[in-house]
Design brief:
This protein has two domains: about 90 residues, no CATH class; about 55 residues. It has six helices and two strands. The chain has a two-stranded antiparallel ribbon.
Amino acid sequence: MKRFFLRILNAVLPGRADDRLAREVASHLTLLEDDFQRRGMTADEARLAARRVFGGVEQAKERQRDARSFVWLDDARRDVHYAVRTLRRSPGFAAVAVATLALGIGANTGIFSLMDALLLRWLPVPDAQRIFQVATEPFPYPLIGPLA
């Protein structure tokens, strides 16, 4: 349970563990460099050999970030952050987008409420499921049967 909450915390506050991770990677590289220098390599050769043995530093950091956080939650946080930054740069576009969404959602809700009240609910009469409508003129769809 503790690990679960730590992963959520790391997804919400990503910079919290990055300094520790950078120090840890640097210490691993330093230990590898020291080992290669003891074997007789120069400082530059030891640094290059340590990086080769360790692998990609940024890839290792990214794997560690993925392991200590929920990737999808971290991606969602970054997407929301990017969207807010983008919308703050163009407030006119943001206002039009919000107004369009509000109008669309409001219209959709109103139409559904009307259709629900008129077509989807049973009539307020006793035994409403037994009411039939019989049509005498041809329609493109059959009207004989229950109203619901």
